[in-house]
Specification:
Mean pLDDT: 92
Shape: globular
CATH superfamily: Aminohydrolase, N-terminal nucleophile (Ntn) domain
Number of helices: 6
Largest sheet: 7 strands, antiparallel
Radius of gyration: 17 Å
């Protein structure tokens, strides 16, 4: 059922070891053969490459895994379930503009009821172009952000994190909802039932460079020890490789 990988670092790194392992989970080491996507930050914003084809066979994914350097990366391999259709429009990550920022999003899980909820919402900031419950959930979150994340939320970032965690929990109550999202500065990760994180500082990055580093993945990657499972319903926010906020249902 789809898998996620994200990285936030204090300066651009290559993530070739975990990304190459993640690529093989797109149809060879795991049953996610229906598409892959990579989003990474460059100076002018996000670059995205994605294809509705198995990641494990993709020369482009392999080359990007080897050569790409960034301080913010999101990746996804897809198991098509809602709908069971391979297409470019249904392939993660998705990208939208909202609130003066560019956002990217990728999802693992199944929340089909969000489709009808979002279709009836009259959301003015985001309309899906594909058919997936994932993209409808993304639009639902952006609509929530547009309504609630004003200057008051910026002034009280803890309240903003808890607000987003609560909105994510409502979607998760419809099924299964693990996601990665970014506005070009923060890596936002929500773990409903299947997500792990690894935090490092010093010279222990995926390419041996010295940096503050946080990685998030559906399953631990790279042969490294120290991966920790998210608490159920936990939302973690990273900036430049360090935690910038955290919320749980009981915090």
């Amino acid at each position: 059922m789809c898998e996620l990988f994200g990285m936030s670092a204090s300066h651009p790194l290559t993530a070739n070891v975990p990304l190459d392992e993640f690529r093989l989970r797109g149809g060879r080491e795991a049953d996610n053969p229906d598409g892959w996507g990579l989003a990474w930050r460059e100076k002018r914003g996000f670059e995205i490459r994605k294809r509705p084809a198995p990641a494990c066979r993709s020369r482009l994914f392999a080359r990007l895994s080897r050569d790409m350097r960034s301080d913010l990366i999101l990746a996804h391999v897809r198991k098509a379930r809602f709908p069971p259709v391979r297409s470019q429009a249904n392939t993660h990550p998705f990208r939208r503009a909202c609130c003066g920022r560019e956002w990217v999003f990728a999802h693992n899980g199944l929340v089909p009821d969000i489709v009808e909820i979002e279709r009836g919402s009259g959301n003015p900031v985001c309309r899906p172009t594909g058919e997936t419950d994932s993209e409808f959930a993304f639009c639902h979150l952006l609509g929530h952000i547009a309504r609630h994340f004003d200057s008051h939320a910026v002034a009280e970032p803890r309240a903003g994190v808890e607000n987003l965690a609560a909105a994510s929990g409502l979607i998760a109550s419809l099924g299964k909802f693990n996601f990665l999202m970014s506005d070009g500065e923060y890596l936002i990760a929500y773990g409903h039932d299947r997500l792990h994180y690894l935090e490092r500082s010093g010279c222990a990055g995926p390419d041996g460079a010295c940096a503050n580093l946080a990685m998030v993945a559906t399953e631990p990657l790279g042969g490294e020890e120290g991966w920790i499972a998210f608490d159920a319903g936990e939302l973690r926010v990273y900036r430049h490789g360090k935690m910038a906020g955290r919320a749980t249902p009981h915090s």
